[in-house]
Amino acid sequence: MDWDSPFFIIAIITIATFGWVVTTAIRARYGYPLSDDEGNLVLPMKAITDEATKALAAENEQLKANVVRLEDRVKVLERIATDPAPRLENEIERLR
Questions:
Q1: Based on the domain organization, do 52 and 96 belong to the same domain?
Q2: Based on the structure, what is the number of domains in the chain?
Q3: At 42, which helix (H) or strand (E)?
Q4: Contact, 1 vs 8, CB < 8 A?
Q5: What are the beta bridge partners of residue 41?
Q6: φ/ψ (deg, to 5) at 41
Q7: CA 41 to CA 14: how far, in whole Å?
Q8: What are the start-end ranges of the H helices in the chain?
Q9: Are residues 53 and 33 in the same domain?
Q10: Residues whose CB falls within 8 Å of the CB of residue 36, separated by 6 or more in sequence, listed in order
Q11: What distance lies between CA 49 and its chain's CA centroid?
């Protein structure tokens, strides 16, 4: 066998890739933690429970409400900043 042939190098790469794919498939199937290219853990989709989904949905609704409230406040501040001074004074006096 010629150790310097490109077929030998391709065979080694193929065997290593096949081994990686099989190992990852086995780890995913049996619930072992998976990792990305940087070594960070990646949770399988089964790890996300209904309780976690409900908690995330509730938090999402709360954050949406906060964004709407803050947008309204920013609109008022923009109106105050861009209104001419006499109009603003009249409106403040009318509110008193």
A1: yes
A2: 2
A3: strand 41-42
A4: yes
A5: 35
A6: -70, 140
A7: 26
A8: 6-29, 50-82, 85-95
A9: no
A10: 42
A11: 17
